[in-house]
Each structure stands twice: as structure tokens, then as C-alpha cells.
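Dear colleagues,

As part of the handover before I leave the project, I'm documenting each prediction I ran so the next person doesn't have to rerun anything. This entry is a single chain, and its sequence is reproduced below.
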Amino acid sequence: MKVIASSLRKGNVVEKDGQLYVVLKAENFHPGKGTPTTSVDMRRISDGVKTTERWKTTEQVEKANVDEREYDFLYDDAEGFHFMNPESFDQVAAQPDVVGDAAAYLEPGMRVFLQTFEGNPISIELPQKVVVEVTETEPVVKGQTASSSYKPAMTNIGVRVMVPPHIDVGTRIVINTADNTYVERSKD
């Protein structure tokens, strides 16, 4: 299926020169003069080699047909990260380079979107927001205004995040998994 380059997003799978690549990052550039372009960081599925490609935003790119469905995360071991299809109970193992930075967020039982090609996991999409607990942060400094200053905090899953001054150790917060940013204090 042909799509224009500017519509590519993280997790899409494209075919180039008979090889399949998973998109890691796609950025559109619109210079004042000249042709708008799309720069795409990709990883070749067969051997994991990373490459960067630049297309004109209106150029046609071959998008591969992949299977995307929900899976439940089970556990990780030396073989990789194991997921189960909640409908058929089929299990698949994803390699650590496929999971990447998402590994910190994975907890047993978590529902994720997994893209597979010919039965092999090639890309993972986490829930947009997760609840974590703050395990370490700096004390509040008098005179700081809540609207403008954030302080660093460490969470129970090992992810650093900037939080408002009123957040203390032991507070459960909601963070955005796409960019590790604080969203709000957890309601639970």
C-alpha cells in the first residue's frame, strides 16, 4: 500500500529495496524556500541495522501490511519479552531491541499494542499514560512558585521525570509514556 512520506509515524513499517524497516522517528521539515521533506529514522527488521532516509513530503512510500493487535505482557527473561494474545492465548517473544525504552514501563498483565510481521514482533506501543510512584525527589525550596518551576524525581520503575514542587516521595503520579512527562497527581 502506497502512502505519502509525510503521513509516516513511529511504529509504521515501510518496504524499501525489498527490505522491511520499522519507523523509529519521523519528522517533517518545511523550510522557507525549497521543497518540504520528511526525515525518517528506521531500523531494518531482518538484522536491526539503523538508517536514516529523507523523502519529499509528497513522495510515495510503500507501507507494509502488518498485524497490529492487543497483547498482554507476561514476563521477560534471557529469550526476550514475552507477550500473550488475550483472545487466542498464543505467545510471542520480542527481542530487547524491539522493546527498547518501553522496557521500563512494562509490568506483568499490562495491555499493549504489538505489531507483528509474519508472527514476529517488530514494534510495541504502550498505553499513553501510566501511574507510577515517586521514590526520590528534592525537598521544596521556599519561594519557588508552582507555576514555573519543576524539580527532578525518580519513580519506582526507574524513570526520571520533572514534577511540580508539591509532589513528595510516595505520591502516585500519572506520566505520559511518549515523552516521560508529568501529567497529574494520580486519583487513586
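The two ends are 44 Å apart (CA to CA). The chain has a mean pLDDT of 85.

All the best with the project,
I.
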